[in-house]
Amino acid sequence: MYREYGTDMFSMLDAEFALIIYDGKEKEYIAARDPIGIRPLYYGYSKTGAIVFASEAKNLVDLCDKIMPFPPGHYYKGGKFIRYCDIAKVDAVCYDDLETVCRNIHDKLVAGVEKRLVSDAKVGFLLSGGLDSSLVCAIAARKSKEPIRTFAIGMSEDAIDLKYAKQVADYIGSDHTEVIMTKQQVLDSLEGVIKLLGTFDITTIRASMGMYLLCKWIHENTDIRVLLTGEISDELFGYKYTDFAPSAEEFQKESQKRIRELHMYDVLRADRCISVNSLEARVPFGDLDFVKYVMSIDPEKKLNTYGKGKYLLRHAFEGDYLPHDILYREKAAFSDAVGHSMVDYLKEYAEGFYTDEEFEEKKAKYTHAAPFTKESLLYREIFEKYYPGQSEMIVDFWMPNKSWKGCDVNDPSARVLSNYGASGE
Q1: What does the alpha-carbon distance between residue 34 and residue 16 come to, in Å, rounded to a whole number?
Q2: How far apart are CA 3 and CA 311, in angstroms?
Q3: What does the alpha-carbon distance between residue 230 and residue 252 come to, in Å, rounded to a whole number?
Q4: How many other CB atoms sit within 10 Å of the CB of residue 44?
C-alpha cells in the first residue's frame, strides 16, 4: 500500500494499528498510528537527537530524556508529525430524527462487531454485565454458529457485575466463566500493573486490576487469543457525570476531549492488560465508521433529556438482544462493579502507607498532575520508580469536568456523584 499510495494510505486504512515503515528508496522511516490510538506507540529523542519509537514506554526509559505517546491519527515523516485524521472533529452535524439515528447506531455497531469476529485464533469476550460489553456479546452471539465464550471477574464478596454478567450469559446462551479475585491478589498485583500500564491515573489503575487478573486467567487456562471488549462507548454516549453538562455544546466538547485523550486512559488499559497476557484486544465501539457517525449526531440528542443516560444506544438495541432490565440498567463504574470492596481495599492500603505528614511532604514534590489523595500518591510513587520524570506521558487525572456544577469531586468513581442512583445495586 505504501508503494502504491505513499502516506495517503493511512487515511484509507480501516484498522487498529501502529506501524513503522522503512522506505529503502528514500532511506527514511515513516511511523503512523490509528486515529483513536487503540494500538500503542511512544516516541522520544536519543542523546544524539535521533527519534526513537517503541510500542511500550518502558523500552525508552534509558534511551530518551522525555517519552511521549505518539499522537493518534498522525504519521511521522521527514522530522514532522502530520495529522491525517482527527476522528473527533465533526465536518457536518447529522440532524436525522431519533429513529433514523438509532437505526444507524444499531447497523454500524453490528457491522463493527461482525468485522472483528473474523480471526485465525479463537475469540473470547469480556462480559462485565454492563450495557456496553453486554451489547457486544449479544451481537456476537447472534452472528456466531457456536455459543460464544464469555468471561467475567469479581471480588468474592460484593461483585455486583457477576450477577448481571451471568444473567446476560444465560440469556444469550454463551459458554460463561466466572473468575473470583481476592484482596491479596489485587494488592500483590498493584505494582506490576502500574509498571505495565505506564500511568499514575487512578481510574485507569483501579479498572485495570480486574481486567489484568481476568486476562491472566484466560491466557493460563484457555486457548483463546483474541478478546472483544466494550471500551469507547462512554466517551461517545456519555458518562454519569455528563448528565451535568450545562449545554449540548459543552457535552460535545467534553466528548471530543475524551476521544482525543482516550489513548492515555481506557484504551491504554484495555491494550496493556490484554497484550501483556499475550492476547489481542479488539474494540468494536472504536470502529472508525461508528465513531465518526456518533460524533456527528446532533449533541442535543445525546444529552440526557430522557431520564436515562446513553439513551440512543439503549433505544437502538431494544427488542430481544438483551433482557430489558439489563438494557436499561443504570451504569456502575467498572472499577466499582468488580466489587466496591476492591477500591476500598486499595484506598485502605494507601491510607496505611503514609502518615498525614508524610503525605503532605511527599505530594509537594510533584507539580504536574500533583497527587491529591494518599491513593494517588502511592500510584505516582510506583510510577516514578519505573518511569522517573515521565509523568507528562499522561496529560492529567481522568476525572469528571470540575468546572461543571455537581462534578467538583476528588474521586473519579461515579459512586461519589449525586446522580449515581441505583447503579450499584
Answers
A1: 6
A2: 45
A3: 21
A4: 21
d(CA 340, CA 224): 29
Q: Residues for the chain: how many in total?
A: 425
Residue 371 backbone zone (phi > 0: left; psi -120 to 50: alpha; other: beta): beta
Virtual CA dihedral for 239, 132, 187, 382, nearest 10 degrees?
A: -60
Q: How far apart are CA 27 and CA 341, in angstroms?
A: 56
Strand order in the sheet with 74-77: 18-23, 28-33, 74-77, 80-83
Q: Specify the long-range contacts of residues 216-219, CB closer than 8 Å, at least 24 apart.
A: 216/277, 217/151, 217/153, 217/179, 218/124, 218/151, 218/277, 218/279, 219/277, 219/278, 219/279
Which residue in the block uniquely carries the three cell numbers 502511592? Answer: 378
**Which residue, among 112, 131, 104, 132, has the nearest Cα to 296 in the 3D structure?**
104
Q: How many CB atoms lie within 10 A of CB 219?
A: 17
> What is the tens place of the pLDDT at every residue in 259-285?
999 999 999 999 999 999 999 999 999
Give the model confidence (pLDDT) of 90-146 as tens digits. Answer: 999 999 999 999 999 999 999 999 999 999 999 999 999 889 999 999 999 999 999
Q: Is the predicted pLDDT of residue 332 greater than 70, yes or no?
A: no
Residue 140 contacts residue 350 (beta carbons within 8 Å): no
AA letter at 341: S
The cell numbers describing 99, all together, are: 429513529
CA 48/CA 206 separation, integer angstroms = 38
C-alpha cell, 26? 528514500
Q: Which residue has the cell 494500538?
A: 39
Convert the chain into a string of H (helix), E (strand) and C (coil).
CHHHHHHHHHHHCCCCCEEEEEECCCCEEEEEECCCCCCCCEEEECCCCCEEEECCHHHHCCCCCCCEECCCCEEEECCEEEECCCCCCCCCCECCCHHHHHHHHHHHHHHHHHHCCCCCCEEEEECCCCHHHHHHHHHHHHHCCCCCEEEEEEECCCCHHHHHHHHHHHHHCCEEEEEEECHHHHHHHHHHHHHHHCCCCHHHHHHHHHHHHHHHHHHHHCCEEEEECCCCHHHHHCCCHHHHCCCHHHHHHHHHHHHHHHHHCHHHHHHHHHHCCCCEEECHHHCHHHHHHHHHECHHHHCCCCCCCCHHHHHHCCCCCCCHHHHCCCCCCHHHHCCHHHHHHHHHHHHHHCCHHHHHHHHCCCCCCCCCCHHHHHHHHHHHHHCCCCHHHCCCCCCCCCCCCCCCCCCCCHHHCCCCHHHHC
